[in-house]
Design a protein that fits this description.
The protein has 7 helices and 15 strands. It is of the alpha/beta class and 293 residues long. A hairpin with a 2-residue loop joins strand 5 and strand 6 (53-59). The radius of gyration is 18 Å and the shape is globular. The chain binds zinc ion (ZN). Residues 141, 143, 207, 269, 271 line the site of zinc ion.
């Protein structure tokens, strides 16, 4: 953190399970704040001292429990809040289902591509404007991906580094036919959270990359009986639950390792210049707040 401005460079957005971790798992909490934005208040952001560095931590689905499903997360408020705090890099996590036959519950995945099948989420900061026509390749920040893979490698954990995440609207899970369709169009994972989060981050020139742990099999990928009254109703087989728990419990170490690796990189990626074309021709100024609304 910049002591004079209170700015932070990195925000960690915790997905499913984030509310189960004590803050101390990631660092010492020094402050907690909610940022007022043109899109309403952000989710609470904890400022943590983590290995002599201040980082933000936001739990996407709720502070103490899973209290907000993916379609109702205020992505614009959260990403706007990140930018307002000075964040340059967002590391997010989520727990999608496996479509690819080589992926199993508990596996770690650093996806490299994204298909948007959401239907009714606000997708941009630039409503009714002539800006925002932005290339999406690489889809995720290569530097954060490199840092993630470095951190996971240090823990000797296997990790899939090529995977396409399909983002659905939710909150319901998918039908078997929908999953067959997603497989045909190249999907390896299915979840509900990376859209529009990743795209909004790019609009504000923030680096963004996700870390995923497979939390279940997508519908129809395996013959699995319906189990009444349990999480995912049987698409996470009982004997795999410990693998999912083990993956999630490694996250504090992975996040801290990733932050260490990130500190040694120089942000030479293209993310920070996503809006350069518009700046260069005078469509927008240097103050990003003026780009919005
Ligand atoms: Zn980047």
């Amino acid at each position: 953190m910049d002591k004079a401005t209170g700015a932070i460079d990195v925000l960690v957005i915790g997905g499913s399970g984030a509310y189960h971790f004590p803050a101390e798992a990631f660092g010492v909490e020094t402050r907690r704040l909610t940022v007022e934005t043109p899109f309403g208040p952000s989710a609470p952001i904890r400022i943590l001292e983590c290995d002599d560095r201040a980082v933000g931590f936001l739990s996407r689905h709720g502070e103490n429990s899973y209290s907000m499903t993916a379609p109702y997360v205020n992505y614009r408020a959260n990403v706007y809040a990140a930018k307002a705090l000075g964040v340059q890099q967002i590391l997010s996590w989520s727990g999608p289902g496996a479509i690819h036959e080589a992926f199993h519950p508990g596996d770690l995945v650093v996806p490299d591509d994204l298909i948007d099948l959401t239907r009714q989420r606000p997708l941009t900061f630039f409503e009714g404007k002539g800006i925002g026509f932005i290339r999406q390749n690489p889809v995720f920040c290569p530097e954060i991906r490199q840092a993630l893979q470095g951190a996971i490698g240090e823990l000797n954990r296997p990790c899939h580094t090529r995977a396409t995440y399909v983002c659905t609207e939710g909150p319901r899970l998918e039908t078997p036919a929908e999953i067959r369709y997603m497989k045909q169009i190249g999907g390896d994972l299915v979840g509900m959270t990376l859209v529009p989060e990743a795209f909004l981050a790019r609009e504000l020139e923030i680096c963004y990359a996700p870390l995923c742990y497979i939390s279940n099999y997508a519908e129809g990928v395996r013959e699995l009986p319906y189990e009444k009254g349990v999480l995912f109703e049987g698409t996470l087989p009982g004997h795999d639950r410990h693998r999912v728990d083990a993956a999630l419990s490694a996250f504090p170490k992975i996040v801290r390792g990733t932050l260490r690796h990130l500190a040694s990189l120089h942000r030479d990626c293209s993310c920070k210049d996503a809006m350069l074309r518009y700046r260069s021709r005078g469509d927008i100024g240097d103050d990003w707040r003026g780009w919005i609304g």
